[in-house]
Amino acid sequence: MTYGMLDINFEGYFMCRLATDPDPTNEERGMSGYTMALAIEDPLDQVIRLQATADWLKRNARPPLPDMSAKVGVTVRTANLNGAPYDGANGVIGANVYLDGADFPLPGPTFESRNSTVGSDDSFAFVVNPFNLRIEQDVTGVKLTASDYLEPKDPKLPLWRIVDPNIYGRRLPTCATIGDTEVTEAVNVFDAYGYFRDRRRYLGKLIRDTCAERGEAGSDEQRARCDAQIESYRSRIYQLQHWGDRVINKIQTKVGWEYAINGPQTVEGNLGGTVDISRPWGIKYWFGGWDGDLLLGYMRGTLAVPITST
Amino acid sequence: MQAATLPNVKPFPPPHDKPTLAAYLTEAAMLEHQFMCQYLYAAFSLKKQPDATCSAAQLEIVRRWASIIYMIARQEMEHLSIANSLLTAIGTPPWFGHYNFPTQSRWYQAKALEHKKLAANGPEPCDFPFLMQAFDLPVARRFCCMESPTLKYVAERDRQNVLDWCYQGPSGCACVPVLNVPLPVSPSFVSGGNLPPDTIAPGTVQELYAAIASGLQYLNQKLGSKELFSGHQSGQSQIPSEYDIYLFSICDLDTALAGVRLITTQGEGIDAPPGYDSHFQNYYDIAVEFQAIREQDPAFQAGLPLPLDPQSGQYSNPVTVEAVATFIEGYAALLYMLAGYYANYSPAEYNRPPYLFQALEQTVFGPTMTMLIRSLAELITQLPANESGAPAGPVFYLAPGVLELLSKPSDPVFFDINFYVASLNRVKVGLGKVIESPGLKPELKPKFEYVHQNVWRIMANLEYIYENGTYNKFLDLPSCPQDEPCG
Fold it and tell me: Is the CB of residue B81 less than 8 Å from the CB of residue B95?
């Protein structure tokens, strides 16, 4: 028997239909920021989606995302005991990672700043709120959950009611870097300018293709659908051109969080030992590689759980 | 740059003393503020959903217009900020008031726009009243005309449209709605004081700024920089500049002229290279695109049918009455905060407790403008004006008492944090009443609750930052360590 720390390492692409400044933080269409909901998509809802259903993606994954190697879904990739690979915890490999709960009145967890009132848009000081982590492997039955409270003395207190940021400062990011190498590698975008230049060119091609398709359309309905697609591509080109660097530099930006989880923790299934749920688990993660055109980003992190291996 | 003058037009004189310069700048601040309100009202009206008169494809175009109109409105805020920073730099109070809408600015009366003619016998310009009007093709054209430089600066290919839109034709001025009663003419700061009434005639705003620039140069030479710039920096440069606005400290002739030049370049496109997106050019392009859509689809409507020049007394729906009254309170609270910040900002006091200027800076610019004023205004457009169900619009009304207070921003009340908190508390109470109103549509309740929460937090932040200063993580975060740093 060995007592040690089991590091559950996860990563993958997430999506967030995020409103951006100077739009209000609950803006549903996206009128003045660099992000927007296209007329043919769902509204912006601000929700951090670590997983997405095929149906949701059908409505909201913009080209070229459906054809890219990037697949939406944050999953567990490795598990290490005291820094070394640990086969006993193989049951967690491939598990989906979720953020549960809702940041009322928004319908899910969000990057909360409320236009620099509870955080800061300018310094990337967002609270991932709420933080209800769930790691679940449907095949092996391994499941871990862990919730963190902003104010342990009053867990139901919403963030906007906690006036002193010192109370929830631990939930704010620990760091932020624009031009981060790890992010660059994770999303495989080394030439940020070229990446979005290619995107604009690609959207131009889609406009030409759709115009050709429109010319052969047999009904008003088909033509209207083509028109909506063409204008949606133009809107995306407009945003990329108008906002320029503000979009471009996010693709290589990383924002990191790290804290000891202070709320309830549960574990089910075989992790190759007995997980200690009485001690706080450690969580460290970053969000970055944000593609403000596709509303797609990358997440990488580690959940550290104390375990006595068998 | 001074516009070429026509033989029948009196040249616009540059100010040769500080009080006159201050009057010009105060006038400029009011004009920028009035532009901003009109553009915001138009932007609030723009549709966010496709409907029977706006297809999904058209909605994309409307949204692109929204992005541009909001950008222009932000730049008018920037101009308002620059005009007020110039005022504080020369030791004069800023001015965040304006004459209420609808009104006819003297600067936009036909007789004041003579300089925009190409020739003395050319067509007469239109009167351009300042109106709260939902966005439509004539509104795009009116905005274009208001931002237009003199015709000699308009590109040859665009001149005919500008002549058609901005000058009187056989049937009058098509881009200005028919108004039942003549509008009151806004009082002018420029003609006040001890100046004989015919000393100064209003010209175009382009000329106003040219006169301000000349006056700054003249007075800098006559008085010296120290005496001319005897006031203080406004503090606007403490605000991170992104989002198409460019703010910098104004403290001497170079920075003052830079401010003036930025305004005239962004607005009319003076001295800008071909292709520059001035406000004039942006509205021109929107109007041309709008016209093309209308020709294909006469039913197309970009905006909700918000009322023309709404007054708070005209609404009958109780929820709307309360929401609009709350908006008016919120607008006053915003202007109090801006006036107190600009008038009394002190770099020395900024980092000393109590942190009044940090508190105002952190709460007024982003949060109050975006999370209160814009959010509430857009929600009001979702409320019925009356029993017909037609949508309501926000009212940018400044009561006499509010204007009186704004005219003396160094009054001790502007140093009292409780004054600002009390102003916002009236907004919070009003929003609470809206939320509790049985007539509020259920789908709108969470959205009003969100605004209510944010106002609660803005108030709390005012008091917290006043006591403690800005929380360090909201100012900056350290860089992330690389996992395996090289070397």
Answer: no
Q: Tell me how far CA of residue B451 lies from CA of A17, A176, B374, in angstroms.
A: 20, 29, 10
Considering only CB atoms, A163 lies closest to which of B370, B374, B460, namely: B460
User: Inter-axis angle of helices B56-89 and B18-45, to 10 degrees?
Assistant: 160
Alpha carbons B247 and A155: distance in angstroms, whole number: 41
**Would you call A231 and B366 a contact, using CB atoms and an 8 Å cutoff?**
no
Chain B residue whose CA is closest to A32: B67
Render each residue's pLDDT in chain B as its tens digit; 487 residues: 333 333 334 456 889 999 999 999 999 999 999 999 999 999 999 999 999 999 999 999 999 999 999 999 999 999 999 999 999 999 999 999 999 999 999 888 887 777 666 566 678 889 999 999 999 999 999 999 999 887 778 889 999 999 899 988 888 898 999 888 889 888 888 864 444 444 445 667 888 899 999 999 999 999 999 999 999 987 765 555 678 888 888 999 999 999 999 998 898 887 788 888 899 999 999 999 999 999 999 999 999 999 999 998 999 999 999 999 999 999 999 999 999 999 999 988 999 999 999 999 999 988 999 999 999 999 999 999 998 999 999 999 999 999 999 999 999 999 999 999 999 999 999 999 999 999 999 999 999 999 999 999 999 999 999 999 999 999 889 999 875 667 6
Q: Which residues contact A278 (CB under 8 A, 6 or more apart)?
A: none
Q: CA B109: distance to chain centroid?
A: 20
Closest CA to B37 of B72, B7, B10, B66: B72
This prediction's pTM: 0.96
Question: Distance of CA B319 to CAs B198, B306, B316, B398, Å?
Answer: 49, 16, 9, 21
Beta strands in B293-450 (DSSP E): none
Alpha-helical regions (H) of A142-279: 165-168, 181-187, 192-215, 220-243, 245-248
The ipTM (two decimal places) reads: 0.96
Q: CB distance from A246 to chain B under 8 Å? A: yes
Contact list in A for residue B367 (CB cut-off 8 A) is 114-117
Please list every residue in chain B whose beta carbon sits closer than 8 Å to the beta carbon of residue A119: 474
Is residue A232 less than 8 Å (CB to CB) from chain B?
yes
d(CA B335, CA B332): 5
Q: For residue A125, list chain B residues with Cβ-Cβ distance below 8 A.
A: 473-474, 477
Query: DSSP string spanning A179-191?
Result: S-HHHHHHHT-S-
- How far apart (Å, rounded) are the C-alpha atoms in residues B475 and A205? 42
| B74 vs A contacts (CB less than 8 Å) | 22
Name the closest residue on chain B to residue A163, using Cα atoms.
B460
Say how many Å lie between the first and final Cα of chain B, rounded: 56
What is d(CA A72, CA B101) in angstroms, rounded to the nearest whole number?
51
Separation of alpha carbons A111 and B90, rounded Å: 43
Chain B hits for A120, CB-CB cut-off 8 Å, are 473-475
Is some CB atom of chain B closer than 8 A to the CB atom of A116? yes
* Substitution target from A35, A41, A117 for chain B, most B beta carbons within 10 A: A117
Q: Cβ contacts of residue B51 below 8 Å, gap of 6+?
A: none
- DSSP label at A210? H
Q: Which of A20, A104, A116 should be substituted to probe chain B, the one whose Cβ sees the most B Cβ atoms within 10 Å?
A: A116
Indicate the DSSP class of residue A30: -
Contact criterion met (CB below 8 Å) for A271 and A290: no
Contact B447 A105 (CB under 8 A): yes
Compute and round to an integer the Cα radius of gyration of chain B. Answer: 23
Rg over alpha carbons for chain A, rounded to the nearest Å, is 21
3-state secondary structure at position B435: helix
Neighboring chain B residues of A227 at a CB cutoff of 8 Å: 55-57
Cβ proximity of B461 and B362 under 8 Å:
yes
